[in-house]
Amino acid sequence: MGYGSIPSRHADLLHQGSIQRNLVKIVIAAWHLKNFNVGIGRYARELIEALGSVDQTNHYDILLPQPEHPFTARPNMRYRVVRFPLFRRRFWEQVAPLMVGPYDVLHFPYDSCVAWKRGKFVTTIHDVKPLLFPELRPRTNLNSRIEDWLVGDRWQTIDQVITVSEHSRRDLLAHVPLRPDQVSVTPLGLDAGRFRPAEHRHEGRPYVFCVAGSDPTKNVGVLVEAFATLPADLRNRFDLILAGDVCKREDIRAAIARRGLGAQVKLVGLLSDADLVTYYQQATVFVFPSLYEGFGLPVLEAMGCGCPVICSNASSLPEVAGEAAVLVDPRRTDQLTQELARVLESIELQLSLRERALARSKEFVWERTAKQTVAVYERAVGR
Which of 27, 196, 210, 380 has the lowest CB atom count within 10 Å? Predict the structure, then answer.
């Protein structure tokens, strides 16, 4: 019997078998990301949701720490809860992927490694900050020792690395034993449905806004100092609002008190998504003076909300901001003071920055990030 005469039912079965052989089974280990609204948690949330939107072919097992999650139900995505004790988390982190059955690709959407694997291993390394600033994350606790004991030479287990900027790729290739063909750049995206301009601006006291973590490389002390050294008649027309874990830093609180800014600097702490958007939308300017970033998502979020941006000219931030922000040397308080004053005093400059920011933000979409990530998965398995 010739191929052309195979009965249609048998041909359908052959076609289905071919599809099954061609699809890639991917496990994404997101179980320890209990907060999907900040940092790497936000990256994992947005990436997984976008993967479900752009890839209906491959099969995904998403490992989560609790049954409540923000993801859309999809026929090719299975959400599985993996609970394990915090004690010796690095050990359970290694074991859990072995419990889900065979897979083609295991993806850790954060900087970690595996001791045992059943397929190819992909990890997202957002930056090399732990190598450049080892004092920020000393590897002396029990979890780190367990990881080192289990894995040994962590770089030998990695098949492909995803990173989020060309700057981070250059840093990786300069500081770790990876080949150029192992490292792919997938820039982050922006949820334009969430981070968008306000329909109406609120009447209220205008403010300068910054959101940052507690990491000293966020360099928020320089912003406090720059705000303090603005001409008094200009500074007194604005508040400075700080959000995020930076608000827990005693040195920042001390600097505010020392400069006599307690009435003008507001520490609002961690914000919900909705509140964060509102603060971006209503700010006169967003300032991000970080010394080192792998990407710099807050800059993109602020631009998407139509907020003028002043940011550091260091690391990846020029890649993100392009020509849509005012760039400053993060180690020069005088330069930040000068540019901050220039933006605050000029409505025309604010409008120009808003227009450029909105145009720039449209270049970053999570669907593109997801498509590039799928290409990495398929490259890892030789497709």
Answer: 196
